[in-house]
Design goal:
The chain is an alpha+beta fold. Helices cover 31% and strands 25% of the residues.
Length: 144
């Protein structure tokens, strides 16, 4: 099953990102839960590694600054053990998704759009639906 998830979404991982195998599997597992929960098609979308924002923090474009701001606004509301938001961007169509996975399984989907005039990404919609919890996804071991 993991191999299926890996092949299902591998094309969305940005080749410039230097992710470990564990990070890739984590992202792919969370992504699969979101695509199943929301029936999302990620064709045309690319994974955007937010680590690159922090590595290039002194030379950010206006677009990257707006993505960083979205990340920070989401992170401010997170609790211990919530997953770091995962970004997928379709630059051709000026659309994006942010997947925020909560410990107990809540999937918070942020829909992004790009505003050409301001050169900023903005959250246009936030939808919350229950997905699988981290234990059921095999990303966290039960304390039982």
């Amino acid at each position: 099953m993991i191999a299926t998830m890996f092949s299902f979404t591998f094309y969305t991982i940005n080749s410039h990102a230097e992710l470990t195998e564990t990070e890739e599997m984590f992202i792919l597992t969370i992504t699969k839960d979101f695509t199943d929960t929301y029936n999302i098609n990620l064709n045309g979308y690319n994974f955007f590694d937010m680590k690159e924002i922090y590595l290039n923090k002194d030379n950010l474009t206006t677009q990257e600054k707006s993505l960083k701001s979205i990340l920070m606004n989401i992170a401010k509301k997170q609790y211990f053990m919530d997953c770091s938001p995962i970004f997928y961007i379709d630059e051709t169509n000026n659309k994006g998704y942010v997947f925020e996975k909560k410990l107990r399984g809540m999937n918070n989907l942020y829909i992004l759009s790009y505003d050409d005039a301001s050169q900023n990404w903005k959250v246009t919609k936030n939808i919350n639906k229950m997905g699988k919890n981290l234990v059921d996804l095999g990303l966290l071991k039960s304390a039982k």
